Amino acid sequence: GDLERFSKNLRAPDLRQEIKQYILSGKWYSLNPVIQPGWAERILIGKTEVQEFTSKTVAQIADEKGCHPLDALMDIISMDPYSQTATPPGSDEVKRVFYSHPRAMVGVDTFLFDHTAESRVPPYYLPNPNTFGGMARYIKLYALGLLGLEEGIKRITSQPAKWLGLRDRGVISQGMKADIVVFAPEEVTDKGTDDEPRRYPEGFRWVFVNGKSAMENGILTAGRSGQVLYTRPSAL
Question: Among 12, 106, 186, 233, which residue is least crowded by beta carbons within 10 Å?
Fold first, then answer.
């Protein structure tokens, strides 16, 4: 059914218990208390019709209601299925420790997003700012600001390619796939915000994917020369 039907169903104790057991078992990727026991302190309720919950964490709401954080979260959804949440990013100090490790590699944990698509029916969904600007932010703050440009680029190119067994990618050399980005390091910056994350970063001039241009003089070509990459398990 739709979100309204789901929010009504959440009021049924047996369904709630089933959902709680499934989440607490650690089987659900998006919310895993086994891996992140402090999840309720990190999820902030943003826009919601239930004003008393606005700008509070799930943990705070659970304390006020005297219930389990998952029950508090399901209460919110049952009252307003269109409530929006936000998860603050990890601290800069933690990121610097991670990036400084010699075996650290960096990727953008997001998904393909058609920036021209328009939702006709709510809830309207916006991508995480990392979708458009994650790599720009990494280059600006950590490749340039912490590791040095050469080492920082290695963490997002040759090092992960080697670890994943992608033998024809990761470096610029004869016989390798031509995945190349031409950019002005000091001009690279991300422009997206939580309110409008669909803003392209600045500082990138040319992008080639499998030898074909995807960006020319800072303008996207709409080329789709990418492909699914495969590797043998033994290479990992």
Answer: 233
Minimal CA–CA distance to 223: which of 172, 176, 162, 179?
Answer: 179
Q: For the whole model, what pTM was predicted? A: 0.70
Q: What are phi and psi of 17, to 5 degrees?
A: -65, -40
pLDDT per residue over 8-25, tens digit each? 999 999 999 999 999 999
Domain range annotation of the chain? 3-86, 92-235
pLDDT tens by residue, 192-202? 987 788 899 99
